[in-house]
Amino acid sequence: MNGLATLVRLALRRNRWFYAAWILGMAAVVPATAAAYETIVGGLATTGALDLLAENPTMRAMLGPPYDLTSPGPFTVWRVGTFMATVAGIMAILGVVRVTRADEEEGRTELLRSGVVGRHAPLTAAVVVGLLACAVLGLLVGVSMVAVGEPVVGSVAYGLGSALVPAVLVGVGAVAAQVTSSARAARGLGLAVLGAAYLLRAVADASEEGSVVRGLAWLSPVEWMALVHPYDGERWWVLLLPAALTVLLVAAAFALEGRRDHGAGLWAVRPGRDRATPALLSVGGLVWRLQRGSLVGWFVGLAVFALGMGSLSGSFDTMLERIPRLEMMLRRLGQGADTLVDAFFVAMLGIVAVLAGVLAVQLWQRLAVEEHRGHAELILATAVPRTRLATAYLLLAAVGSTVLFAAFGALLGLPETLAQGDLGPMLGSLRGALVLVPGALLVLGLAVLLHGWAPRLSWIVWVVVGWSLFMVWVGSILGLPDWLVRLTPWEVLPALPVEEMDWTPVLAITGAALALMAMGLWGYRRRDLRLP
Amino acid sequence: MGVIEIHDLVKRFGSTVALDGLDLTVEAGEIHGFLGPNGAGKSTTIRVLLGLLRADAGTARLLGGDPWSDAAELHRRLAYVPGDVNLWPGLTGGEVIDLLGRLRGGLDERRRKDLLERFDLDPTRKGSTYSKGNRQKVALVAALASDVELLLLDEPTAGLDPLMEAQFREVIRQDQVDGRAVLLSSHILSEVEHLCDRVSIIRAGRVVESGTLAELRHLTRTQVQAEVSSPVPAELVGLPGVHDAVVHDHRFTAQVEDAALGDLLARLAPLGVRALTSTPPTLEELFLRHYDQSGAGTPRS
């Protein structure tokens, strides 16, 4: 383990802003939620509407199991805890891959390893720094909860859980970095594992009480923090699960690293074709070839998510029968099971609409990656005009994200359609999806504009997307002013079928998106290419 | 008319001046060496010629067209090999060669096969598994196998072993027979010396010297070593045009300007020459003289 201390310092130095941004962003939400408890919950507690909230499958699927909503502590754990543990997992995976596989791919690790640095030292440094970040996050969560006046014991449990759940993902990232031979694949594998864990607990939490499926939540690491039940008779032993799994995964990563060559993954790279197929021999063909992997990955993820969530809606009827009080309340509010299902679809579409924006921007920004890596230079030195290269990326980003989101919409309604033998639900959710597409196009347009005129500022689009995702997921409950929560490209679009169809915002946003794209392409034609 | 005509080209990156009034002319059918140390502006010049970067001032003509506004059309008639070739990790070398060839407008199948054999390149391997030299070969095959009028090669042999470098030289010489012009940037001087008809030396964004090798040699001195039977008279050391003279017993070494060679030999002959070596100036020396002097923008001649 020669040079470990140096490597840890180096990793800390190179990643301090990365971790600081993630940790502060997440940690700020926790005390804000606890402090806003009275505003959010207010009178609900006395009316029994809180129970309604607790049994609402949409809320359970998105946020986790509400074991106690009568005080700010456990309410915060439910409202933001599981969601934040998942987001912290993203941080953990990206952070570990940055220092391991990404550095190895860029040749930086080779430089270090050629010095007096032990074989496992770079991986150890990545794990140490990753775990340190998780610990800091947990500490901030615990301390801030105590600071807003919550019980110390519960806050300790909450803080420990918030640190140990992402710690598991540090292990996942470390293993993924060994198995794959590129940073892209490592990130993909790690995030796929995290996504699967989140989906598993979403399905489990939203299914009926006492069913076998609900018990499956115990298999999802992102659920373990909530299962400790902070502030409500803490089950401390549950914390052993993430701790043990982290140790196991990190040990596995070290074992795997000992068995592979530097620069290689466990999945060997096989030889390919000696000639290109005609399908590759155009700019569009190349772009498709480079992006199809991530499109297929997104499609599988979205399809599983859609079918998982969609099949939940079928259980709403039985749930209403089992909880008569819930049905009575819905009746009193003038709503029935249909409305409950519609509201569920609207909530799901609202979230995935922003994810479609993430996909569109990610597909487009591959062009920036191609410039940075010098691939674009090779292409643009041939008889390919810049606008043709950029348009190929833009078209795939727009069409790819639209098709995938439409497919998500259709698949979301599919289980209900099959159950009822009626095309209605499927067409309804498909329509609901299509009408939200302009939102993704608008952020895509912003990304194109930034890339064309100010490529250094391209991160701004991620702020917009991150803001939108945050608002659609947790914003409405933080007690923020309504106009602020609705300040996203998607919120002005009609939420079918709960709201009426309104063409004005749909056409206006589409027009704005197209204008931004055209301006961006114009700028891209005029500026210096970014070169490695 | 030249295939490349650059006059007073300026390119800035923020406050850094990368090209500072660069002039460069490459005639049709000639192999033109473009010499300079790292950071002198060689790659920037080539990237302006490719329309990847936009010039801030000055004029550049490429194959009779404007390298910025006519970029895509002009690129059908030229091929480019970057200094640091980065391939797509998931595409094989063969796929990249075919793709770049097609996007340029076509590939000569016979040459493709021939070049793969010459460079001993396995086209079935994925980009991520190639070494630096092999990535370079992929780009070279793609460029050399296409039927173009001009090759822009940015340090093309940086990763090649000596055997492959020799293959490369042979291919380029054959190309010249076909009437192709080549702009070859390099800091490997022997390569330029072996291949190029004319050379331009670039320093800090300006071309400080341009001409045929013979023309540039007049600027340099020949290394003379003589061993004579009688002691060397002291006045030899002070002759005009003789520099860094060292007299050691019966041996005499000095750097001699071409104009002073005759006079020196006439004075050496009566001393009874036992051995005489004269080493012609290499481009290395030429090069060092332009870059060893810190600060000075104008070359000493």
Automatic annotation (TrEMBL), chain A:
This protein's record includes keyword Transmembrane: yes
Keyword Lyase annotated: no
Keywords: Membrane, Transmembrane, Transmembrane helix
Annotated transmembrane regions: 17-37, 77-100, 121-149, 155-176, 188-204, 236-256, 295-316, 343-364, 392-412, 432-452, 459-483, 503-524
Protein name: Exporter of polyketide antibiotics
From TrEMBL, chain B:
Stored InterPro entries: AAA+_ATPase, ABC_transporter-like_ATP-bd, ABC_transporter-like_CS, ABC_transporter_ATP-binding, DrrA1/2-like_C, P-loop_NTPase
GO BP, one annotated term: response to antibiotic
Keyword Chloroplast: no
GO cellular component: plasma membrane
Superkingdom: Bacteria
Family annotation (Pfam families): ABC_tran, DrrA1-3_C
Record key words, sorted: Antibiotic resistance, ATP-binding, Nucleotide-binding, Transport
Record keyword RNA-binding present: no
A molecular-function term among this protein's GO annotations: ATP binding
UniProt-listed SMART domains: AAA
Membrane protein topology class: Peripheral membrane protein
Compartments in which it is found: Cell membrane
Residue ranges annotated for the ABC transporter domain, each copy included: 4-229
Family: Belongs to the ABC transporter superfamily.
UniProt name for this protein: ABC transporter ATP-binding protein
Organism expressing this protein natively: Ornithinimicrobium tianjinense
High-level lineage: Bacteria, Bacillati, Actinomycetota, Actinomycetes, Micrococcales
